[in-house]
Amino acid sequence: MPLHSQKVTVWCGFTAAFIFGPLFLEEIGLSGPVTCTVNGTRYESLLRNQLIPALQQRGCVDSTIFMQDDAPPHIATPIKQLLNLHCRNDRIISRYFQQPGRHDHLR
To answer: Which residue ranges make up each domain of the chain?
Structure first.
């Protein structure tokens, strides 16, 4: 068995003022850290426990525009609820978030 995994899952965020990350998505297995894939639960944990507190600590959670692609983990219902709790829809750029002036039938 190799000393390190042959693959890695990394997440990073950035603003005009700072870079957040990189964060390596791992879980602790029987023989130590194991790389894992991103799913809705892991992504929600990353946002809830690491990113949002970091933005709050910097005093910019209320002014950050959050942009993400439409990967399935990014649009899971718990993610949408979490982001709506901390960001208004006009500060979330994602196809699955309703934005003022944008109509669903135009997607």
So the answer is: 10-93
